[in-house]
UniProtKB/TrEMBL annotation:
SUPFAM superfamilies referenced in this protein's UniProt entry, alphabetically: Glyoxalase/Bleomycin resistance protein/Dihydroxybiphenyl dioxygenase
Domain of life: Bacteria
Pfam family, one: Ble-like_N
PANTHER family, A to Z: GLYOXALASE-RELATED, VOC DOMAIN-CONTAINING PROTEIN
VOC domain boundaries: 3-126
Protein's UniProt name: VOC family protein
């Protein structure tokens, strides 16, 4: 045991966050608010036959992170087919670059962004030719 099986992204504006993650990554959402007793939407991140996990967007319970504050928690990283195309979608939907694209030599392209809710997340495009 100990394998990650679920994640929660804390958000201020549920509709804005669902639009951002839906448009950028193609996620769909299920309203689980009744069960949670607060605004809480399950995030379906892909087909159950594919590697990965599902999670949720939940209403933030405290102030959001301050701009330029060091990360104080987990950062989720999403696998993508095209770093550049995904970055364009992120920026188009109101996200910002936190750490620009860099190579993990012989493995992948990696970078970090700030979503519309002030949360940091990464994207990762496998590429054996990255240098």
């Amino acid at each position: 045991m100990g394998r990650l099986v679920h994640f929660e992204i804390h958000v201020d504006d549920m509709e804005r966050a669902m639009k951002f993650y839906g448009e950028v990554f193609g996620w769909s959402f299920q309203d689980w608010s009744e069960y949670a007793g607060m605004p809480y939407y399950g995030a379906v991140t892909g087909d159950d036959k594919e590697m990965g996990i599902n999670g949720a967007l939940m209403q933030r319970q405290s102030p959001p992170p301050e701009p330029n504050q060091a990360l104080n928690g987990y950062a989720c990283t999403m696998g993508v087919e095209s770093y550049d195309e995904t970055e364009a979608k992120i920026l188009e939907q109101g996200g910002k670059v936190a750490m620009p694209k860099y190579a993990l030599p012989g493995m992948a392209w990696q970078g970090y962004f700030i979503d519309t809710e002030g949360n940091i997340f990464g994207i990762h495009q496998p590429d054996e030719n990255a240098k």
